[in-house]
Amino acid sequence: MKTEELKALIRDVPDFPTKGIMFRDLTTMIKNPEALHVMGEELKNLYVGKGVTKVVGIESRGFIGGSILAFELGAGFVPARKPGKLPAVTVKKAFAKEYGVDMIELHSDAIGPDDVVVLHDDLLATGGTMLACYDLVKSMNPKKIYINFIVELSCLEGRSKFPKDCEITSLLVY
């Protein structure tokens, strides 16, 4: 199975979560063992040899690919969570969404100045959640930050919200 063949396994769900939205459901892809393996290998190939020490996965679907990527690279996994989900001292960042304000949190000791970090989420749409996570991780002063998605919806131009020097990769682009 090739990377582009993964697209055929992603289910389109019209009008979810609201009317007019075409939701790309990755659960139909990741339930396929071969597709999950190919996805993990392709994610690893993007970052092998870059000295990655931590992968930050964004709640909740980013936990899936992020954990696989961390395992494949021999790196640690850091969950980026919604407020109140982490048990120790946190740092947080609020961000605007299409339908209100949300917040993302990390443990305050999760990232250090010697870390090379990959921020991972399943899908890049408008980019608000990942940008908030990027700003939060950047405030922790790691050596380097990479940004990764399994799917990118290019028509929504989420990539344009990030600084020009951000290295952003997506396995599949719609």
Explain what you see:
- The strands form three sheets. Strands 4-3-7-8-9 form a five-stranded parallel beta sheet, sandwiched between helices.
- Helix content is 24%, strand content 34%.
- The two termini are 19 Å apart.
- Helix 2 crosses helix 3 (62-73).
- The model has no long low-confidence stretch (mean pLDDT 96).
- It is globular, with a radius of gyration of 16 Å.
- The protein is an alpha/beta fold and 174 residues long.
- It contains four helices and nine strands.
- Strand 5 (90-97) and strand 6 form a beta hairpin.
- The longest helix has 15 residues, at 33-47.
- It has helices at 27-30, 33-47, 62-73, 128-138, and strands at residues 11-14, 22-25, 54-58, 76-80, 90-97, 100-107, 116-124, 144-152, 167-173.
Helical fraction equals: 10-25%
- Beta-strand content bin: 25-35%
Mean pLDDT, to the nearest integer, reads 96
Q: Order of strands in the sheet with the most strands?
A: 4-3-7-8-9
State the secondary-structure class: alpha/beta
Distance between the termini: 19 Å
Tally of DSSP β-strands: 9
Q: What would you call the shape?
A: globular
**Unreliable runs:** none
Q: Order of helices and strands, N to C?
A: EEHHEHEEEEHEE
**In this structure, how is the largest beta sheet organized?**
5 strands, parallel
Radius of gyration using CA atoms only: 16 Å
Number of helices: 4
